[in-house]
Specification:
Low-confidence stretches: 207-220
Largest sheet: 4 strands, antiparallel
Distance between the termini: 77 Å
Oligomer: single chain
Number of helices: 9
Radius of gyration: 29 Å
Mean pLDDT: 79
Number of strands: 8
Length: about 220
């Protein structure tokens, strides 16, 4: 069968310049990419549309995640985690009292389009080693109240790090919970329900067979 001359033909970003040596029965062609690189490609890959650039197209997509709505990136996960905590988390979730249950919201600008959040993040020091933090822990997720900080620093700005004084001793909420053998989520949930500090710290966890004790049934 007569060989088809591909010289001068264009496939995606590639323009065929000349024939190269065969690889067995497979014909190869030297192609010039729009970016200036030359690449030798099998004729069948050109004709089937399997190769359309020297590899630059794939690299551009990797370094410009906005082309794909940021899917699969760390920013994407941070954004949707933020939305879930404030908009869709259910009351039986341990985090509910600290976000949606507390009235924390995501601003309309970010909630309406992830690209707005991405642009703010890139302009305000985002880095793979940092995490989003609300400056005012009782405030919303919005440009004026958010920053990027190392994960170790974020723990210093959480509700569980607020100081509590009990029996003439002052410690953070997380330290009190640890000392009393409670989960920090249990301690915070008890206070949220109106329990006194003494009740929240001293009433033991009860099993389901003891649930007839009303308000003193444990919150896990």
């Amino acid at each position: 069968m007569r060989l088809q001359d591909l010289t001068g033909k264009r496939y995606g970003r590639l323009t065929v310049k000349s024939r190269d040596t065969n690889c067995g029965k497979h014909v190869k062609w030297v192609c010039l990419c729009d970016c200036g690189n030359e690449k030798t490609i099998f004729a069948m890959n050109l004709k089937r549309g399997l190769t359309t650039s020297c590899g630059c197209f794939r690299k551009e997509n990797i370094h410009n995640p906005l082309k794909h709505g940021l899917t699969g990136t760390r920013i994407y996960n941070i954004y949707h985690g933020m939305i879930a905590r404030c908009c869709s988390i259910q009351e039986n979730n341990e985090a509910y009292p600290y976000y949606r249950g507390k009235g924390i919201e995501v601003c309309n600008e970010w909630r309406s389009d992830i690209k707005n959040f991405y642009s703010w993040a890139m302009a305000n020091g985002y880095d793979e080693s940092l995490t989003i933090d609300r400056i005012d822990n009782d405030g919303n997720y919005e440009p004026s109240n958010c920053r990027w900080i190392p994960i170790g620093e974020q723990s210093k700005n959480t509700s569980s790090n607020h100081n509590i004084t009990f029996q003439d001793e002052t410690m953070t909420m997380s330290d009190w919970a640890r000392k009393k053998g409670l989960k920090i989520s249990t301690f915070c949930a008890r206070l949220k329900k109106g329990w006194s500090k003494e009740e929240a710290l001293t009433i033991p966890l009860l099993n389901h067979s003891q649930s007839g004790l009303g308000r003193y049934y444990a919150i896990y």
